[in-house]
């Protein structure tokens, strides 16, 4: 039987829906909001195993019709199919290894470390002047990661707003008109194509230039792979971090004891960031995978040529894995949470996201120790991939002071 999971109830209370699925139907055959049949995996152990299973492919060149084959009558998967392939997230070994290695060569720990002072500066600049009542997402949580990824890739500052707008449209794909999603992806690719060509002639001190070098020295990344990888870094690199900051702040503001504990001991911030990722991470489901042969997950048989989504949000609340899984506890060590995925596609940007998160929470707590929610009327954004709020209205009693 196929049940619809991604409905209004899911948007209102995804954790409630996932808790029910983990109990009753841990590998559920369901339909996406675009009318595509998928198998949805919700228990921690099954999610981890699925993310490590080489029979679940991410390379849609290997089965170009798999999306169409799984459309229901009247369904439309073209928005989901608009992702730009030829990068590591949409490839299998050995291509995956080659593409990831080339980016790792350029996106080094040293590069992330070197960005720290600039991230501090950008954050301080954004917080200056904020006070009273404001939308924490619009004024801060969206801005900081967008600026950081713009700087990382070497996108000229005047272009940041339009590039970020296209990227938002791509990310919200599952909730929008497929035509709009395709157009946004095409605009980004055209823009990045020109940018990569410009960086080849005129390299700067940025990640795209470093990837161009890695590409030219080894001739192992094609021009289209380079553009596609830049697209991936742009899209993967900002919206996620927005919701790390916003979901984490919502969790804190709704629990004054946790807010007080973190304020009292700011050394807990890095660990609290991990707990925010576990408790209410930015990604609800992973990107699509498909079965290359029949596979059994958690006792459920899935045929070949089927689409599989694993829920990271659900896995991280599995009571089989975590004691008091539904409680936020900034003093706990959330161990191997799955918010950054698992296996060969484990998030490449996790070190940067952690630095951004740590700086953001430290600054927000220092600046606004009396921050509170300004409204209880909060709306989660549509779409099945991301888990984030539309707005986060907050207020602070005292004027802003410098960090
Ligand atoms: C809190 C912020 C972030 C979260 C929660 C997050 C989460 C994830 C997850 C779950 C995956 C795996 C998806 C799958 O297997 O289907 C992934 C992959 C990836 N992420 Fe992140 N991400 C974050 C920030 C970033 C940043 C800042 C960057 C880069 C600037 C980035 C770059 C990537 C890349 C390149 C991949 C593909 C890795 C591969 O396929 O080998 N991410 N991320």
UniProtKB/TrEMBL annotation:
* Tagged with keyword Oxidoreductase: yes
Which Gene3D superfamilies does this UniProt record tie to the protein? Cytochrome P450
Q: Which UniProt keywords apply?
A: Heme, Iron, Metal-binding, Monooxygenase, Oxidoreductase
Keyword Heme attributed:
yes
Superkingdom, taxonomy of origin = Bacteria
Entry's Pfam families? Answer: p450
Q: Name one GO molecular function term.
A: heme binding
Q: Which family does it belong to?
A: Belongs to the cytochrome P450 family.
Protein's name according to its UniProt entry: Cytochrome P450
Q: Which organism is it from?
A: Nonomuraea endophytica
């Amino acid at each position: 039987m196929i049940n619809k999971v991604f409905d209004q109830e899911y948007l209102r209370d995804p954790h409630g829906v996932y808790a029910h699925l983990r109990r009753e139907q841990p590998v559920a055959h369901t339909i996406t909001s675009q009318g595509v049949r998928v198998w949805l995996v919700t228990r921690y152990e099954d999610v981890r195993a699925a993310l490590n299973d080489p029979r679940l492919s991410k390379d849609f060149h290997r089965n170009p019709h798999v999306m169409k084959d799984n459309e229901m009558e009247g369904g439309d998967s073209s928005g989901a199919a608009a992702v730009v392939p030829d990068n590591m997230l949409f490839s299998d070994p050995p291509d995956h290894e080659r593409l990831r290695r080339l980016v790792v060569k350029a996106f080094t720990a040293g590069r992330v470390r070197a960005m720290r002072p600039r991230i501090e500066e950008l954050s301080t600049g954004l917080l200056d002047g904020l006070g009273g009542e404001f939308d924490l997402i619009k004024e801060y949580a969206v801005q900081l990661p967008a600026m950081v990824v713009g700087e990382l890739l070497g996108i000229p500052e005047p272009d940041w707003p339009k590039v970020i707008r296209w990227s938002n449209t791509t990310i919200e794909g599952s909730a929008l008109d497929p035509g709009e999603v395709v157009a946004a992806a095409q605009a980004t690719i055209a823009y990045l194509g020109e940018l990569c060509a410009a960086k080849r002639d005129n390299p700067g001190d940025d990640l795209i230039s470093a990837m161009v070098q890695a590409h030219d020295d080894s001739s192992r990344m094609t021009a289209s792979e380079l553009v596609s990888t830049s697209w991936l870094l742009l899209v993967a690199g900002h919206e996620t971090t927005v919701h790390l900051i916003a979901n984490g702040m919502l969790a804190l503001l709704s629990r004054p004891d946790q807010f007080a504990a973190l304020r009292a001991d700011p050394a807990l911030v890095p660990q609290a960031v991990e707990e925010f990722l576990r408790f209410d991470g930015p990604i609800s489901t992973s990107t699509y995978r498909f079965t290359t042969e029949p596979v059994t997950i958690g006792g459920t048989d899935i045929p070949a040529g089927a689409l599989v989504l694993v829920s990271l949000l659900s896995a991280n609340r599995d009571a089989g894995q975590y004691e008091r899984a539904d409680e936020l506890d900034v003093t706990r060590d959330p161990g191997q949470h799955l918010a950054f995925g698992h296996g060969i596609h484990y998030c490449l940007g996790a070190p940067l996201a952690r630095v951004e998160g740590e700086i953001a929470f430290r600054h927000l707590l220092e600046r606004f120790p009396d921050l509170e929610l300004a409204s209880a009327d909060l709306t989660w954004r549509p779409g099945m991939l991301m888990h984030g709020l539309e707005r986060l209205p907050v207020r602070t009693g005292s004027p802003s002071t410098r960090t």
